[in-house]
Every structure is written in structure tokens, then in C-alpha cells.
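Changelog-linked ticket: adenosine-5'-triphosphate example.
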Amino acid sequence: MSSNFRSWPMTLLLGFLSLPIIVMMVYLFVDTVTDTTAGSLIPDRFTLEHWRFLFDAPQAGRSNIWSVTLNTFIFACSTSAIVVMTSLTSGYALSRLNMPYRRLLLGGVLTLHAFPTVTLIISIFLMLQMTGLYNSLLGVILVKTALELPLGIWVMKGFYDTVPWEIEMAGLTDGASRFTVWRRLVLPQVHPGLAALGLFSFLAAWSEYILPQVLAPDGASQVLATYLQNLIKDDRAPDFNMFKSVGLFYAMPVMIIYLIFNQKLMNIYGGGTKG
Amino acid sequence: MRILLDQFTKTFGATTVIDKMSLDIESGEMLALLGPSGCGKSTTLFAICGIHRMNGGRLLFGERDVTHLPSQMRNVGVVFQNYALYPHMNAFDNIAFPLMIRKMAKPEIERKVLAIAELVHIEGLLKRKPAQLSGGQQQRVALARALVREPDILLLDEPLANLDAKLRLEMRSEIRRIQQETGISAVLVTHDQVEAMSMADRIAIMDQGQIVQLAAPKDMYDEPVTDFVASFLGNPPIAFLQGTVEGKTIRLENSDIVLPLDAQAAKQGNGTPIRIGVRPEHFQPEHPVKISGKISFIEEQGREELFDVTLSNGMRLRSVQANGGAFRLGDEVSWGLAADKVLTFDPSGRRI
Ligand SMILES: Nc1ncnc2c1ncn2[C@@H]1O[C@H](COP(=O)(O)OP(=O)(O)OP(=O)(O)O)[C@@H](O)[C@H]1O
Ligand SMILES: [Mg+2]
């Protein structure tokens, strides 16, 4: 920001506009460590009992929070890993190789991306049932990966497109094989895209709710999103403070990732930085 | 090493870019491929280094037929127009890359890289990334990378196009020095005739996928085979005058100006349309065959002055003279041609 542009009026305005969201976030946090009388805004007392779900044995019919967290991690990490590896290779192919039906493939990939998940959910449900993957984490991973892939492939293709042809030609005339050229010369130039895509697909899987809810509703393959929903599903007197605590617990990794990697996440919108 | 391109043909889809072109590059010579944009210079270069597959013809490195060998196995060094340095590696690693691919031992690599860095004068810059180098320095790194594995041939695709004028002058002689010191055969692609004339042993002028003439710079300048070649070489360029043969003279179009023709050209029958080409240094006040006109343009070039002289029929002649003639814009002058230096061309552009 330049010196002839005073920043404080802008800051003030943005701060004011963000106030409702900030208030919500503050209360989300405050409520997880206090008790408040219904209808009041001021907390009565400090307590950690809303966080007891982390340590107590689960109630009957509920899963252990740690195994659910582990499931979520497995779900998010595998999705991210598969999306990254597939986009990395197919993005290159679509960007550089002179293959038949390339335009058709590109168009097809884009069309796939345009379908909202919900419109596909019934057919996916049927397919998983037929293949025996219904109610398993593997099934959800595969479906989520498939839905994330189109974007990933396009993003990586975009990054590959910014790498000059001549670098690859130089590599070939220097004696390197196509594969070596890709690994040693091209890959290092798309790694910002790689990191951003990995994070994005991790976050997308981490916050996925519909797919696990519909395709793997049972306890063993539960993830945090469905666990959260289960908390308030059948209770006559839902414990909203615990619900908020679990919510905060669920959101924590996301916030940490954003704090650490926000620079890398910006890259995906910038479409490739050199260096 | 001698490089022979024999009946080389290249097509992209349905369009034939180069049709049955033959080119012989002698061992240790620098050959310039000169031609206008889009004439197929880069295409020829890419065929020699194996990036483009040839659609017909043969390519020999020495006695070895490499027509169907992939790029990796040809041992060519290429300097690309934008240098194509690997941005994530420093200069040392860039130069070492071809050797690393060859799995050469570390100390050996180090020795070779340092030696070549010394040759191109970049010893002090080896730790820098390409982005931290100036255009000329990047150029030297690219040259070093192309030369480090002692290729059979060095290919340069418009190596000076991205440099400023002063650096271009410097790199011109640098590249020539390095090529002569290493004794490597080289092909220089350029569309700058000055570059080709000053750097190459021989020039191949290309037009629309054909080699029009292949000769040493001086021969080509003095004895161009077509008007295309004549107009391509020389700065300021040659001026052409249209006319028809009348006995042993040519009468310029729409005028009563007649100029003598040499015996060869005069053999054309009366009334044959022909063109004569006059280089600026052959149109001077002191030359014998006078022709009058009006100075319509003056360009001051420091050491020299460039004049455009418009004749009574609107045609224009150019003259380059050392400073101090005290001619003004609009002056009526009567300057002379060096008749024996005038070039004549038939209607199809061929030299008579
Ligand atoms: N991949 C391609 N597909 C189709 N046509 C091509 C391709 N590459 C080059 N051409 C055509 O081949 C012709 C020669 O191209 P080339 O790049 O060899 O020209 P050039 O002499 O190097 O020109 P410049 O001085 O502009 O670099 C041009 O008409 C160009 O349009
Ligand atoms: Mg070119």
C-alpha cells in the first residue's frame, strides 16, 4: 500500500463490516469454556466440561472422537495425495503431449467439474452399493477424489502451461529423458501449484459433509463432520456447548493450515509464480 | 565435424514448410542461416537437433546417419533465443546439467564446468540463479551449457535478438571467438544481415523454405544471385530501378533517363523489362555515369550521411557519403553511378 493512500479509514470500515463474524467467532470460543444462562449474553462461570468428549469414553452408540479424527485425517490426506498425484501427471499430459482427443478430454474434465455433488449422489450411492464399497471410508475417498480431480487437473495444466517449451527442449538436447526432464526441470517450476492444490484438496475433504453422511453413515467410518451432526441428531436435549466445542476442535486444523500456508494458498488464484 | 542435411523435407499437417533442402556444413565453420521471419530457419535448426522429426531426407553427422536418432543421442549443443536456462538452478548447476545426466564423476564435472566458465568469462557468477544475471551473462551461461559436453555441432537460434545494441556488438565477437577457440562447427540462425555478415564463414540465405544462395559473406554481397538476396544484404539497402532494354542501354520507366548496360544484360532483346540494383556506396558525386534528381531525405549517421535522391520519374536512389558534402534537403544534384558495380535482374528477379 502506497503512502498516499491512508489505510486506517479502510481498516476501520472493513473492521466494522466484519464485526458480526468476529462476534460469532468470539462467542463460539467463549461458549466452549463457560456456562451461560439461557437468554443471557454474559457467561456465568468458567468450565472445561464441554471438552470432556476428548477424554471420556464415548456414550453408547457414539464413536470415540480420536478414531473419528483419525478417519478424517485418513480421508483428507488420501484424497489430497491422490488428487495431487493424478493432477500432476494428467495436467502435464494435457498441457504438453500431443494426444488424440485432447480438446475433448479438456472439455469433458471441465464439464465434470460443473456438476454439483448432490445431483450425482444417488447414482454414486448405487454404484458404491454394487461394488461393495458402500459404508467404507475407501468408497468415500474414491468419490471425493473423483469430484476434486477436474479442478485439480485444470489448475495443474494451467501451471504447466506457464513453463516455457524451450526449457524442455533444452533438457532433451542436454541428453535427459522425457521423464527426467519432467521431474528435474519442469516439476520444480510448478511446485507452488502443487502445494496449493494439495492444501486445497485436503481442506475440501476435511470439510466434506454430504458424501460421508450419505455414503458411509455407520460408526466405523465416521468422520468429524458426521460425528458433529450425530451429536445433535437424536438427543432430546442437545448439548450445544459440547457441539460448539467439537466444532471448534474440528475447525482447528483448518485454521492452523490457513495461518501457516495462506501465502501458498493464494498461489492457486495467481496461476503460477516463477522462481 | 561435417554436418550434411540431404533433401530435408518438413511438413506441419498439410503445409510443407521446407521442401527438399540440402545443406552442407563444413567441419569447424560457422554457417549463418539468414532469412525473413517465417522462412523456416528455426524449423531447420530443430530438425538438426532432433526436436522436430524430419518428414523426408537424411541427416549425417560425419559419417553417422542420425536421421532417426532421438535428440538425447545426437550430441548437439543448442542456445535458444530466450536462453532457456533452468530457473531453479544456479549457473553452475545449469552448466553441469548435461554432464550430470551423463553420470560423470563429481570432480570431473567440476573441472569441466570451471574450464568452460573461464572460456566464456563467467567464473565469478557460478553461484547465481538465472534471474540474478543480466541478459549478456545469461547468454554466456547458455553458451557454456551448450558447449560443456563438447557437442558435434553448436546450434544458435537468434542468440543476440534479446540483447541491447552495445551488448550485441560485444557478444557477436565473443561468440565468434569462442567458436573459433573450440573449433566447433556451428549454425547461427538470424534475420539480421549484419550479424550474419560479421560472424559467419558462409551464409545460407533462405526464403520460403528454400536456400536461395550459399556463399561467403563478401561473395554474396558482391554477386547476389537474385534481387531477394541483394535486397537482404547491405545496410542501408540496395535501391532498385525499373526500366526496359534499349540497345545497349536501359531506359527507366516513365522517363527519358537512359543508363548504359553491361554486355551480358544488353543481350536481352529490345523492350525487355529489367531491373537494376544500385548499392548506396556506388552512387557518389564523383562517379562517371551521371544521373540527376532532388535530395528528398537526409539521415545523419555520425560518421556518414545517408541521402535519398528522387529522380524525375519518382524512383529513388540511395547514397552513403562521408560527412561534409554540405548538401541540403531539396538540393538538385547530379551524382554518378559506378557502372561496373550495377547489378541487373530479369523480371523474375534472377541476376543477369
Ligand atoms: N508447430 C508448427 N505447426 C505449424 N506450422 C508451424 C509450426 N512451427 C512452425 N510453423 C510454420 O513454419 C514456418 C517456418 O517457421 P520457423 O519457426 O522455422 O520460422 P523462422 O524462420 O524461424 O522465423 P522467425 O525468424 O520468425 O523465428 C512458419 O510459416 C510457421 O508458421
Ligand atoms: Mg525462429
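Closing comment: Example verified and attached. The domain at 239-345 of chain B is CATH 2.40.50.140 (OB fold (Dihydrolipoamide Acetyltransferase, E2P)). Residues B 12, 17, 35, 37-43, 191 surround adenosine-5'-triphosphate (ligand 1) (CB under 6 Å).
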